[in-house]
């Protein structure tokens, strides 16, 4: 079962961890585990020391111990001065001999002559006088001063010893942080019960400490402070297994009680708390009955017999124990044990024996389907090579990837790219290594957008915690800033679409480039006449120049060869038009569209006739204005019809209704409404039924209202069951009320159909009839009339009123429709109709017809006037006059003839115009030929040769185009631009995807967001100073919340021990673990496979392997046998094999990084030759360097060297002193200014310790720190690098040595040599002849240093062309010719220059006088295929990435015009051939992974000897300004200034246009067509005499502003658009004001804070937003700093480039024009 095997592995690792943690009982006798210690009681109390145990300790201090370096080492006194005469003759040593008297020399030598004392009796006399009168006094004075000196020296040495001791501990802590930890211990348990019992000397309470070294111009000191992780630990393992002396239960109880006390008193982090002694007392009382505690500051000199615990604080540097690893393995074992039996840990399966056969391994598709990566894009934001791509491709298919990274092959650079790619895919990543040295540089390798997603937890110091704080803070800020994740995702999608399109464009551009490249080298088919190589075609063209000299036009478009026909036609037409009068074509021909058409003129004639014939009889007419006469007539006709219908309406009240219509129509609408409601109650069928079947007679003396009331009353009685007839009738009841008896009449008086009304139905019929009669009465009332006497039936009456209603409604409708039409008429005309008479409307219809004809006639007259105007314009054809007369006579027949004549004129003019167009068209292409035809000077006999002449011109132009390189260059530039854009876009997408993954996770985890917010709040509460109880409280709270926030950080960088200390192990808690320097790790790193889903292992088995001090390899054998049964390769789990060795077994193949960037080729060649090349993994050294570099390999022979000690304690004092002396010498050497140093002893551990001590004594601790000096073994430098390395071979003549040939020796030597970037010094006390074994690595190393032969520079001479092949090593005569030209111009050249051990060859390399090398490639006509071109392009890119500058010249171009072809080369060489300083090396001493060479142009600034007079009108010569990061400033002092450097801005060359500002107040614009260095930019400019560049700015769209500041205190803000020109001028004068000396210039996109300093040390802080932007380049600016007492502004810097404790102190109420504030002590600008 897999679970059991998992447990086997981790149980073994648990045992392994425990074996490495043997408890130390006595720290005084365990130098291996406790290599250094400082007892606080031993620290002397001096004023320059401060210690927490001192009585006058500064309680507000943030440290426990501060040891300042003592100043003023006492100088030994000299004997009082003698006279000049005696000084030469007295033996100096005899002057201080108290047991004798001074003596004189017998002879002295002066000016080469020997003088005897016997010849100088006056000397003897003067001497005796001195002895008798002065010597005793001088001696006493000297002895007194000597005594004082000795006392002072003793004190100084005592102070210095303490300081040096602390500095030594600091060095060890820095150098071996992964192996050692620094703690403060209190509560020293110190006793020995008897001689048979062990001595116990261990602190029971410990707390982690942090040691730092700080220095300034005033002082340097070592400081010990509480670590951020300084939680108090209780340590009892030293006595826990002493069962004969202690009861383990008592120890556990004591530990428990102490822990409870510390918790109760809230003593968590300070072992110096006032109550800590009580905790010590509690422990002493409980470990044993006779236990005791003492508050003594020092441990007792005599060892106590019973358990005694002293306060005795001490600073301890001790070996890190493996308790954290033990706890980690125990937790993993617990996790696996409690897991389901089917637990599967894929990353460990192959280790325990699963997936052993090939068919067991998952296929690529299976792996890819696991969702390892979300997309196929490789998100590498930095430059990359094929090996890095291979790593990702392997990671897609496998959960383990192995990478061999030999020294200097860019492992950190590779890992940075991998991190970015993984984060972009939403992965959680851990990067680890054995030492923090290998990891320190990693975060800075990441692009800025990724840095806050990565935390460097390299140790427990404040720097690491601050790094974590910064990341969490940034994540919280992003969480607050980006609230719309859907919008953020959409933005990413848009960028991905942009990337896809960009890749497509890049592929198309590359294909086009290949086509062009192939075209320039293959046999060219320029056209059907000209074919061959470029050189052949160029040669033929040159021969035929005279043949086609007559063809002077530059026409080259052979696709338009049909123009030859046009030329013939043009010639014929020219002859024709030259024979006729063409002036007629100059007239303007009337335009038919501006004249009346024939139909219009005919219509006009018809209208005129109608007016005369129809309306001449009438004298007066109504004038009607109308928009649309036909429409008006239509409306009038409709109105006439309506009026007729109204007149036919016979309603009696028609007139009344018409008069009421306008204002009282509502009355009639009310009548109609009431009528409609009443008639609704009188349905026709019901009325007809009544008429047919109902006859009712009513009493004549009763009204209908009474009858209705009585009927309703009696009906009610019936409904109640009462009888109205018979004996039981209500009327026969004597008791019936009067109101009943009164209605008896109804029964007989009302007859229904002839019978009495006595039934319920008859009563209802009566009531219905009464209702009907009342309704008709209502209708009569409404209309005040009733039907005539003939209408007696109900139905006739109803029909009468219905018809009446319909007629009334019809009349209203007619009136409404008529009013609508009247309104329409009024809206389109001037007609107004008041009444409703039809006769009036009929007359209006006739008048409308008249007015319509009249309007049409007027319209035609207007058209005629307009046409006549057209016919009267200047230069109109004479036919116009005739047309005007014809129209006036309305003669349609003649008019038709005129229109036909116009058509003829237009046709003739169009033919003439076509001729002119033909002339113009031909003139555009063949202006000279056209001119000759027009002048009759063209020899038409040449026409037959015209086609050939055009092909000649075409070939000539095509060759020029191909040779001009414009198109190829444009494509190359475009390809470079696309690649840069792609890199930036990938970086942007990657960072956004990474951030999206983090923010998306946080949005889904509300609890995590709460902890983030709580952390932010706690940090704010800490305050600025961070001191005090309140700050301490919130600092602890912030740390608590930080633990909860850790999951928000997707990438962690930690050394392995920190991983074990920090994490709570869970299976697959990281998506990826990346291991660096895996060869330094052992099997104990296997737990990384448990906590990761995938792992990338980077290491090198040719470098140092793991060291398990104190663990014998044989000790592990029983544990292997017990725990690792049936585990494959179980015997490989001992101490002899590294994790890298394990990985080679369980990983599927290995990727090897072979491009070497760190060392000079001569240095890495040793490693290459002996360690890598023999295995077929040779390295390719790509470091670009100056030929004027310091010599890479140096040796110092120490002839008198000898060896002391044996084995690991072997030393060579002579070599040690020689190294210390050499370093002290180089410190003052300008060639080594700012360079970092490292020292390695190649044998033993003690040699480095001696060298370190000697170096510090020679140069002091400050310089030691500045130079980053580390003295150690090869293991001390694994993962590190230095500019200069010093190696001590150690062995000497007296050394009985064995040959160093083992693999571990090879690893040590490989690491030692490959640490140096620029130079290695080898100090040796033996010669090659003394080392008899040539396989000894010491022999190989010394032989390499003494006998290495670099590539020689051949003699610089020209070669004569001869028959046959070119001389060696040239590959063509073309190369020879270019070589000759360069040599003739006094440049040194190396042909066929090898780079990367011959992996790359460069045709020619020019060596400049300042050491710079320029690559020159000769592109001949020989075709090598698309693949070769692609490889050539890739080779150039690789070398350009390493700093090479390339110049390419093509054969055709060269041979057609050598001078022009090489002109750019001379400019490039001239621009680079400037004497320059070596670039100072950054003092962080961390390797960059890949070297980037920045070419610098250095100019000397003339010293300023006196203050500039501002009032002068003379232009001020500007000094060079240089750019550091993003700031450009100039420091002005009264001292001689060092040459100032201009550095290329990191992103300058990414912009399409570069502006170069110069000392002559000019600005030059350079188009960036693939420029790779600043020197190439400069080479594009022709400067004026004495003109120097001072500032470079890159721009894409001229956005932002140029900030300029001057010595007179003024600053200007110029809009960048002021430098944009319409005509693309390359040079602009007056780029900035010349009124005062420029001291600052910088291009900004957004406003920034700037700090200004004046000559009287006053400071002003201001924001550029306070300066109004202007469009004038020569603005004098606004006063930002007021001049006072002849002061002037000396410098301006960005706020982030200065050190100000309280920057806002210098801001003057947001205003400008101020004197400023004096610079405060401690602030630096």
Task: Describe the protein's architecture and organization.
- By secondary structure, the chain is of the alpha/beta class.
- The chain has 52 helices and 51 strands.
- Strands 1, 2, 3, 6, 7, 8, 9, 10, 11 and 12 form a 10-stranded mixed β-sheet that branches.
- Helix 22 packs across helix 29 (794-828).
Q: Total strand count, please?
A: 51
Q: Provide the helix percentage.
A: 40-55%
Largest sheet: 10 strands, mixed
Oligomer: single chain
Uncertain ranges: 356-371, 1024-1029, 1476-1546
Average pLDDT works out at 84
Task: Give a quick set of tags describing it.
single chain, 1725 residues, alpha/beta, 7-stranded parallel β-sheet, extended
What is the gist of this entry?
Helices cover 43% and strands 14% of the residues. The chain is of the alpha/beta class.
Helix and strand topology:
Elements: H1 2-19, E1 36-39, E2 49-51, E3 65-68, H2 84-89, E4 107-110, E5 113-116, H3 121-133, H4 135-175, E6 180-191, E7 200-215, E8 220-226, E9 233-234, H5 237-240, H6 248-264, H7 276-287, E10 292-294, E11 308-310, E12 314-319, H8 323-338, H9 346-349, H10 364-368, H11 386-397, E13 400-404, H12 411-424, E14 429-433, H13 437-440, H14 442-445, H15 448-451, E15 454-456, H16 462-481, H17 485-521, E16 524-525, E17 531-532, H18 534-543, H19 563-578, H20 598-615, H21 629-648, H22 654-661, H23 665-680, H24 684-693, E18 696-697, H25 704-719, H26 738-741, H27 745-749, E19 751-752, E20 755-756, H28 760-783, H29 794-828, H30 838-870, H31 879-888, H32 892-925, H33 927-934, H34 943-964, H35 966-1004, H36 1006-1022, H37 1029-1045, E21 1051-1055, H38 1056-1062, E22 1070-1075, H39 1087-1091, E23 1092-1099, H40 1117-1123, H41 1139-1146, E24 1151-1152, E25 1155-1156, H42 1161-1172, E26 1180-1181, E27 1193-1197, H43 1213-1227, E28 1237-1241, H44 1246-1266, E29 1270-1272, H45 1274-1277, E30 1282-1288, H46 1303-1313, E31 1316-1324, H47 1337-1347, H48 1373-1384, E32 1388-1395, ...
Parallel strand pairs: 10-11, 13-23, 13-24, 14-21, 14-22, 15-21, 22-23, 25-26, 27-31, 28-29, 28-30, 30-31, 34-35
Antiparallel strand pairs: 1-12, 2-3, 3-8, 4-5, 6-7, 6-11, 6-12, 7-8, 7-9, 16-17, 18-19, 19-20, 32-33, 33-34, 36-39, 37-38, 40-41, 40-42, 41-45, 43-44, 43-46, 44-49, 47-48, 47-50, 48-51
Helix pairs in contact: 1-8, 1-40, 6-7, 12-35, 17-35, 18-34, 19-32, 20-30, 21-29, 21-30, 22-29, 23-28, 23-29, 24-29, 25-28, 31-32, 32-33, 36-37, 42-46, 43-44
């Amino acid at each position: 079962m897999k679970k059991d095997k998992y447990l086997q592995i981790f149980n073994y690792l648990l045992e392994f961890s425990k074996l490495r943690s043997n408890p130390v009982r006595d720290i005084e006798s365990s130098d291996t585990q406790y290599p250094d210690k400082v007892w606080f009681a031993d620290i002397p109390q001096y004023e320059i020391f401060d210690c927490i145990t001192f009585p006058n300790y500064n309680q507000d201090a943030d440290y426990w111990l501060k040891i300042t370096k003592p100043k003023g080492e006492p100088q030994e006194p000299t004997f009082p001065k003698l006279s000049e005469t005696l000084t030469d003759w007295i033996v100096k040593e005899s002057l201080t001999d108290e047991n004798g008297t001074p003596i004189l020399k017998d002879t002295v030598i002066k000016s080469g002559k020997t003088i005897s004392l016997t010849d100088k009796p006056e000397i003897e006399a003067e001497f005796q006088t001195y002895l008798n009168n002065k010597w005793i006094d001088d001696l006493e004075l000297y002895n007194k001063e000597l005594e004082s000196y000795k006392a002072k020296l003793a004190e100084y040495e005592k102070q210095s010893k303490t300081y040096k001791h602390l500095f030594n501990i600091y060095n060890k802590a820095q150098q071996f942080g992964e192996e050692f930890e620094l703690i403060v211990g209190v509560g020293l348990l110190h006793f020995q019960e008897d001689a048979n019992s062990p001595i116990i000397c261990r602190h029971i309470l410990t707390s982690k400490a942090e040691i730092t070294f700080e220095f300034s111009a005033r002082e340097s000191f070592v400081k010990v402070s509480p670590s951020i992780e300084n939680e108090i630990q209780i340590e009892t393992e030293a006595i826990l297994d002493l069962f004969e002396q202690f009861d383990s239960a008592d120890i556990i109880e004591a530990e428990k009680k102490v822990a409870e006390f510390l918790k109760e008193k809230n003593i968590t982090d300070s072992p110096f708390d006032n109550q800590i002694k009580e905790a010590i007392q509690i422990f002493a009382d409980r470990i044993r009955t006779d236990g005791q505690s003492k508050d003594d500051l020092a441990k007792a000199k005599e060892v106590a017999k019973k358990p005694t615990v002293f306060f005795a604080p001490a600073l301890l540097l001790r070996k890190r124990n493996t308790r954290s690893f033990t706890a980690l393995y125990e937790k993993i074992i617990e996790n696996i044990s409690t897991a389901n039996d089917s637990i599967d840990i894929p990353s460990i399966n192959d280790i325990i024996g699963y997936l052993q056969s090939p068919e067991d391994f998952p296929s690529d598709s299976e792996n890819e389907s696991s969702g390892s990566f979300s997309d196929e894009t490789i998100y590498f934001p930095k430059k990359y090579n094929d090996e890095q791509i291979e790593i990702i491709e392997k990671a897609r298919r496998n959960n383990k990837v192995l990478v061999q990274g030999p020294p200097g092959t860019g492992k950190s650079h590779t890992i940075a790219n991998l991190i970015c790619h993984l984060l972009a895919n939403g992965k959680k990543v851990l990067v680890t290594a054995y030492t923090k040295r290998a990891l320190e540089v990693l975060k800075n390798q990441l692009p800025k957008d990724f840095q806050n997603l990565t935390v460097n937890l390299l140790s427990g110091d404040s720097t690491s915690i601050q790094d974590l704080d910064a990341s969490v803070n940034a994540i919280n800020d992003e969480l607050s800033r980006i609230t719309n994740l859907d919008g953020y995702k959409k933005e990413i999608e848009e960028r991905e679409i942009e990337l896809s399109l960009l890749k497509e464009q890049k592929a198309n551009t590359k294909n086009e480039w290949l086509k062009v490249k192939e075209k320039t080298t293959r046999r060219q088919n320029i056209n059907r006449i000209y074919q061959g190589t470029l050189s052949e075609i160029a040669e033929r063209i040159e021969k035929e120049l005279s043949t086609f000299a007559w063809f002077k036009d530059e026409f080259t478009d052979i696709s338009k060869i049909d123009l030859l026909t046009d030329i013939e036609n043009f010639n014929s037409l020219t002859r024709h038009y030259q024979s006729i009068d063409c002036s007629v074509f100059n007239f303007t021909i009337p335009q038919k569209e501006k004249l009346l058409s024939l139909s219009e003129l005919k219509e006009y004639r018809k209208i005129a006739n109608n007016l005369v014939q129809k309306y001449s009889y009438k004298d007066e007419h109504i004038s009607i204005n109308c928009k649309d006469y036909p429409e008006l007539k239509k409306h009038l006709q409709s109105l006439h019809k309506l009026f007729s219908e109204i007149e036919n309406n016979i309603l009696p009240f028609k007139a009344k209704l018409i008069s009421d219509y306008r204002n009282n129509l509502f009355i009639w609408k009310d009548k109609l409404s009431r009528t409609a409601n009443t008639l609704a109650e009188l349905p026709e069928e019901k009325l007809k039924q009544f008429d047919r079947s109902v006859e009712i007679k009513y009493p004549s003396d009763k009204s209908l209202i009474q009858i209705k009331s009585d009927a309703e009353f009696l009906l009610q009685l019936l409904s109640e069951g009462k009888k109205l007839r018979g004996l039981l009738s209500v009327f026969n009841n004597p008791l019936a009320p009067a109101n009943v008896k009164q209605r008896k009449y109804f029964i007989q008086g009302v007859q229904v159909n002839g019978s009495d009304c006595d039934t319920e139905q008859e009563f209802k019929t009566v009531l219905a009839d009464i209702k009907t009669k009342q309704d008709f009465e209502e209708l009569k009332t409404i209309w005040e009339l009733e039907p005539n006497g003939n209408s007696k039936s109900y139905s006739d009456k109803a029909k009468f009123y219905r018809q009446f209603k319909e007629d009334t409604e019809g009349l209203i409708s007619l009136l409404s429709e008529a009013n609508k039409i009247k309104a329409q008429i009024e809206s389109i005309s001037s007609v107004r109709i008041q009444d409703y008479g039809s006769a009036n409307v009929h007359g209006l219809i006739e008048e409308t017809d008249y007015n319509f004809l009249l309007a049409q006639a007027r319209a035609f007259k207007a058209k005629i006037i307009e046409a006549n105007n057209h016919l009267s314009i200047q230069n109109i054809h004479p036919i116009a006059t005739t047309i005007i007369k014809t129209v006036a006579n309305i003669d349609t027949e003649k008019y038709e003839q005129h229109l036909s004549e116009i058509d003829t004129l237009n046709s003739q003019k169009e033919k003439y115009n076509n001729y002119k167009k033909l002339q113009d068209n031909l003139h555009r292409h063949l202006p000279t030929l056209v001119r000759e035809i027009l002048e009759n000077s063209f020899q038409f006999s040449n026409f037959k040769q015209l086609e050939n002449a055009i092909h000649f011109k075409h070939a000539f132009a095509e060759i020029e185009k191909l040779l001009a390189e414009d198109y190829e260059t444009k494509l190359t530039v475009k390809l470079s631009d696309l690649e840069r854009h792609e890199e930036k876009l990938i970086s942007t997408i990657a960072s956004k995807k990474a951030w999206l993954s983090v923010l998306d996770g946080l949005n889904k985890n509300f609890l995590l967001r709460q902890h983030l917010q709580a952390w932010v709040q706690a940090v704010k509460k800490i305050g600025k100073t961070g001191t005090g109880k309140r700050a301490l409280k919130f600092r602890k709270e912030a740390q608590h919340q930080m633990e909860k926030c850790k999951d928000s950080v997707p990438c962690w960088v930690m050394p392995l021990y920190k991983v074990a200390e920090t994490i709570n192990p869970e299976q697959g808690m990281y998506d990826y673990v990346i291991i660096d320097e895996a060869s330094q790790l052992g099997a104990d790193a296997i737990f990384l496979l448990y906590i990761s889903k995938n792992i990338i292992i980077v290491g090198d088995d040719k470098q140092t392997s793991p060291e398990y001090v104190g663990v014998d390899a044989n000790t592990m054998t029983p544990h292997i046998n017990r725990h690792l049964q049936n585990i494959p390769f179980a015997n490989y789990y001992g101490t002899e094999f590294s994790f890298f060795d394990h990985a080679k077994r369980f990983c599927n193949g290995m990727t090897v990084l072979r491009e070497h960037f760190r060392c000079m080729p001569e240095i890495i060649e040793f490693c290459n030759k002996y360690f890598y090349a023999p295995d077929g993994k040779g390295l390719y050294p790509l470091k670009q360097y100056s030929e004027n570099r310091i010599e890479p390999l140096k040796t110092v022979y120490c002839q008198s060297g000898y060896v002391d000690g044996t084995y690991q304690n072997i030393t060579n004092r002579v070599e040690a002193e020689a190294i210390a002396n050499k370093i002290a010498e180089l410190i003052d050497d300008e060639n080594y200014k700012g360079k970092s140093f490292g020292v390695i002893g190649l044998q033993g551990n003690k040699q480095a310790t001696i060298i370190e001590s000697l170096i510090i004594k020679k140069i002091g601790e400050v310089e030691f720190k500045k130079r980053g000096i580390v003295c150690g073994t090869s293991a001390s430098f694994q993962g590190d690098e230095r500019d200069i390395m010093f190696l001590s071979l150690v062995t000497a003549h007296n050394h009985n040595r064995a040959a160093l040939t083992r693999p571990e020796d090879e690893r040590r030597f490989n690491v030692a040599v490959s640490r140096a970037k620029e130079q290695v010094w080898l100090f040796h006390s033996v010669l090659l002849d003394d080392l008899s074994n040539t396989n000894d690595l010491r022999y190989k190393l010394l032989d390499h240093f003494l006998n290495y032969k670099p590539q020689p520079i051949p003699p610089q001479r020209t070669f004569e062309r001869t028959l046959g092949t070119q001389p060696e090593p040239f590959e063509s005569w073309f190369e020879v010719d270019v070589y000759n030209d360069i040599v003739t111009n006094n440049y040194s050249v190396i042909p066929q220059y090898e780079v990367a051990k011959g992996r790359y060859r460069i045709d020619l390399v020019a060596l400049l006088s300042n050491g710079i090398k320029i690559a020159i490639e000769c592109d001949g006509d020989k075709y090598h295929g698309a693949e070769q071109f692609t490889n050539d392009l890739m080779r150039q890119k690789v070398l350009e990435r390493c700093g090479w500058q390339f110049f390419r010249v093509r054969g055709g171009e060269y041979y057609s015009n050598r001078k022009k072809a090489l002109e750019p080369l001379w400019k490039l060489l001239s621009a680079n051939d400037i004497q320059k300083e070596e670039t100072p090396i950054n003092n962080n001493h961390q390797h960059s992974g890949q070297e980037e060479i920045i070419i610098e142009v250095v100019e000397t600034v003339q010293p300023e000897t006196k203050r500039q007079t501002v009032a002068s009108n003379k232009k001020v010569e500007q000094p060079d300004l240089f750019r550091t990061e993003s700031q450009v400033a100039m420091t002005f002092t009264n001292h001689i200034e060092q040459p100032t450097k201009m550095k290329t801005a990191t992103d300058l060359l990414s912009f399409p246009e570069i502006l170069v500002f110069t000392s002559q107040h000019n600005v030059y614009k350079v188009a960036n067509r693939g420029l790779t260095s600043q020197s190439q930019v400069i080479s594009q400019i022709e400067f004026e005499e004495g003109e120097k560049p001072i500032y470079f700015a890159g721009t894409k769209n001229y956005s932002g502003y140029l900030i300029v500041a001057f010595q007179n205190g003024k600053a200007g803000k110029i809009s960048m658009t002021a430098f944009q020109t319409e005509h693309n001028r390359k040079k602009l004068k007056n780029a900035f004001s010349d009124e005062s000396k420029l001291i600052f210039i910088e291009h900004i996109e957004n406003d920034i804070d700037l700090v200004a300093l004046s000559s009287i040390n006053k400071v002003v802080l201001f924001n550029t937003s306070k300066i109004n932007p202007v469009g004038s380049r020569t603005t004098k600016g606004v006063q930002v700093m007021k001049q006072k007492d002849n002061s002037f502004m000396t410098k301006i810097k960005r706020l982030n480039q200065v050190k100000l404790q309280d920057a806002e102190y210098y801001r003057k109420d947001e205003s400008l024009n101020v004197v400023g504030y004096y610079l405060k002590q401690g602030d630096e600008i």
